[in-house]
Amino acid sequence: MIFHVLTIFPEFFEGPFAYGVVKRAKDAGVLEIRIHDLRNWTNDRHRTVDDRPFGGAEGMVLKCEPIFSAVETIWPQRRTDQKVILLSPQGRLFDQAMANRLKQNAELLLICGRYEGVDERVAEHLADEEVSIGNYVLSGGELAAAVVIDTVARLLPGVLGNEASSAFESFQEGGHGEGLLDCPQWTRPAEFRGWKAPEVLLNGNHGEIAKFRRSAAREKTAKLRPDLLE
Length: 230
Ligand code: SAH
Prior knowledge:
By secondary structure, the protein is α/β, with parallel strands linked by helices. The protein has 6 helices and 9 strands, in the order E-H-E-E-E-H-E-H-E-H-E-H-E-E-H. The two termini are 34 Å apart.
């Protein structure tokens, strides 16, 4: 899968994809991440990407022309499995189900807003969807793009070491997941400051372990995220 990111801060992405499973998947060629500098699609000497909002208001707005030019250069003819996503606090809330849907595409292009946001014509006439990572306002779409890419990337076949491992995780529906929280985990030492790991996990009885994990996952979900049990 190919992820494109359109940003005025390309250096921002030197960090987020340089570690762990995402880095390994990149190195192995399972996925590709291409960072595009929005200023490459400006025509003036100052490489202007923003302007004052019509009607007068605080701050600046990202202009539409460089963004349209960028997307139309990257994909001169857009296929249906090449999706443009505008990161925006006004978008649909990103969750595991959306990540599963997005991973079906061959390519995603994520547009990172800045300042007071992006000229609305990008949302209306260029983006396939507006996506928010939560009900709060970030200073830019870069962190949100990194969140979306990281989440979708680890669902791709061959990214996690064990093929099955994402099927058991929190929020994952279908497969083995029930859309609940993952079960709690323990590792050595079996006893720490008098707190013991559950005995049942140490006895090697796989039937009992599976039963314990299901009930522990339900219990934790009921305690912390009762909304998921609906
Ligand atoms: N004035 C806008 C906020 C602009 S924040 C409003 O109140 O709706 C600047 C940019 O940060 C946005 O264009 C968007 O790309 C990004 N951003 C901020 N919060 C976000 C969120 N919760 N999810 C995704 N992107 C976000």
